[in-house]
Amino acid sequence: MIRIWFEPGHDRPRHLYHLAHRQAVSVDRRLPILELFLAQSDLPPEPPPSTIQSRPGKLSAAGKAIATTYNGTAWLGGAQRHIRARSGDLGYLLSVEGSGEFEIHTSGEIVHRGAGENPPATEPATEQATMLATEVVLGPALLLQLAWRGRFALHASALCRHGQAIAFIGDSGAGKSTVAASHAQGDNARSDWHRLADDILPVVWPPNDTANSTGDALHGKIHVAPHFPQLKLPVNQQYPRSAPPLRPLSAVYLLIPPPANGSLKGPRIEALSRKEALLIMVRHTVASKLFDARLQALLFAALARASTELPVYRLLYPHTATALAKALERVEEGLVGSL
Hints:
- The protein is an alpha+beta fold.
- It folds into two domains: about 1-150, no CATH class; about 150-339, no CATH class.
- The chain has helices at about 125-150, 175-180, 275-285, 295-310, 320-339; strands at about 1-5, 15-20, 25, 40-45, 65-75, 80-90, 90-95, 100-105, 110-115, 150-160, 165-170, 195, 200-205, 225, 245-255, 270, 310-315.
């Protein structure tokens, strides 16, 4: 169980959600973006855990040195914000400009402690500050909790065809959302393609051979767990609650912008080497910049195995609707050939 407190000083009813394949998450606030994943509401309040502080005996149970794992900027709440992450035996302290301090306990708790080092007074509106705190909690804080449980998330969109998942990774602006939406909505929507994710794609790695709700085991294959909030999508476009909680991952495509000189006339797909695939997937793992040495080792081991089992390709296409349709035809051909 992961327990989240947005307002640790108040006794609020709690709400239970199931995310990323049976991961129970209890929250002291009802979150509209999680409405599809709500399992039970109005549960009794619970007291938050003791405060983690950046001094020996708090963040570090054994009094060891506290490591700063990241001190830089990231895009959160519609702006570049300064973030500082510190790691110790008991968990993380995450300071976010404009939202304050977040404690991420290894025991499974996430607590928003308010001002911390960066008072939220920089936010012009309470609603905006609330939205920022929600994005931090459901983004890096929750993903750190999942990482301790061996579940990492790719910064990826994803489509499903023939029950198989296809992930699309790439830098911001590379077209991940465009690709995922192309067959899920609009003039090119197709009933045999389904969008699994728009931005964050949790992955379940063998040998965690759990079974999904249909009784199908992982059978040693890498699966994705799409029941996870896609913060850029409205509630009615989230992955349906009734849909299978696990989908086998058949391939990963790295989206590359086409040459600016217009020399690319049609889609081009190139297979990546195992080394290239490993480095690309590490780079596009959400929140990996915050990972300490323990989580980096877990991530590297998982992705090293994935790079031997998953085909990873480089995909280039001219950024037109016609070229995108042709590119996805090529992707579909490769998927059908692998079945």
